[in-house]
Design brief:
Length: 322
């Protein structure tokens, strides 16, 4: 890793909001950073062949649990978000254990997690007396405007720095996973579960570890998104559409590249904003069409994602240097 280049990039990213104060560009950057972390959380398990279509449910849990704890019990998000992450982890255990224990894999696992997204969406919509249903839900505003206790800030600069810190956790977690024994065990499981079990790998436990980690990260993304937007709805933080959006962006950018989900988030969010600016309400839902077309093109011509070829070119150079 080129540490001097990383240090320069870090200083530049941190200094950005103090140099440029445009509210709308900073808003777009915050959204890109938050969703990049959410997409990275999906790629944590997706890169090992565990294709989950239920991460919209985990993100919805993170967002709604954080907001409900604040509105009903005035529990600070500094505690509410960890509780929401724990709730997402428990849900991952409840879904993952029977699947992995009885070897529900492949498209069967994907379909079961897809049902989780649909159920989460229906539960949030049906309990409208508590969650606001399809009309959405708004956390109570702090009377003074900005508050560290309430994790509410009027300035985009503060939220940019928070989102940047959360985003940085994504590549760091990927880096740690790739250099752990968990990575080797999951790679063996992805190749052949029976062979992995024969050499002593506890298949169920190892799959549960990565699933719980991924769900916990997604719960964190949901909580942060809720606090930043101060408005959530079933369609924006949960459901099948959000789950598929995570898959699209991660595959588009490059599933096996640490910054791949970030590139995917940049493209998808900018595409959504451009469609909204150019066509207004007449382009509602077009972003999903664009995602689908991009996904088909990338799978056909760039199966390793947009950053995949760059990663392949750098590998021989890194080998020669080593």
């Amino acid at each position: 890793m080129n540490w001097p280049l990383c240090a320069i990039a870090t200083v530049a990213l941190v200094a950005l909001p103090f140099v440029y104060h445009g509210a709308y560009p900073l808003h777009i950057l915050v959204l890109i950073l938050i969703w990049s972390f959410a997409y990275t959380s999906w790629s944590v398990m997706g890169r090992f062949g565990l294709v989950s279509l239920g991460h919209g449910g985990f993100m919805g849990i993170g967002a709604y649990v954080t907001a409900l704890l604040w509105n009903y019990w005035h529990l600070t998000p500094w505690l509410g978000i960890p509780v929401a992450m724990l709730a997402a982890a428990v849900m991952a255990l409840l879904i993952g254990y029977p699947c992995f224990r009885f070897r529900i894999t492949g498209h069967y696992f994907a379909l079961l997690t897809l049902a989780l997204s649909a159920i989460a969406l229906q539960v949030i919509t049906a309990t409208r007396d508590v969650t606001g249903g399809s009309l959405g839900y708004t956390p109570e505003r702090w009377q003074g405007g900005s508050s560290l206790y309430a994790l509410q800030f009027l300035g985009k600069e503060t939220w940019y720095l928070i989102a940047l810190g959360v985003w940085a956790l994504g590549p760091l977690i990927l880096w740690r996973v790739d250099r752990s024994m968990l990575s080797h065990a999951l790679e063996a499981i992805a190749e052949d579960e029976d062979a992995a079990a024969a050499i002593g790998v506890n298949v169920t436990v190892e799959k549960l570890k990565i699933t719980v980690l991924s769900a916990t990260m997604t719960g964190l993304a949901g909580g942060i998104y809720c606090q930043y937007q101060m408005f959530i709805s079933p369609d924006t933080v949960s459901g099948i559409a959000v789950s598929l959006q995570m898959v699209f962006a991660a595959v588009l950018g490059g599933l096996y590249v640490p910054l791949g989900p970030t590139v995917g988030a940049t493209i998808t969010i900018l595409a959504t904003e451009l469609l909204r600016i150019w066509f207004g309400t007449g382009a509602v839902g077009w972003d999903n069409l664009v995602y689908g077309i991009l996904l088909v093109v990338v799978i056909i011509f760039l199966p390793q994602g947009l950053l995949g070829p760059l990663r392949a070119r750098l590998r021989p150079r890194q080998s020669r240097v080593a």
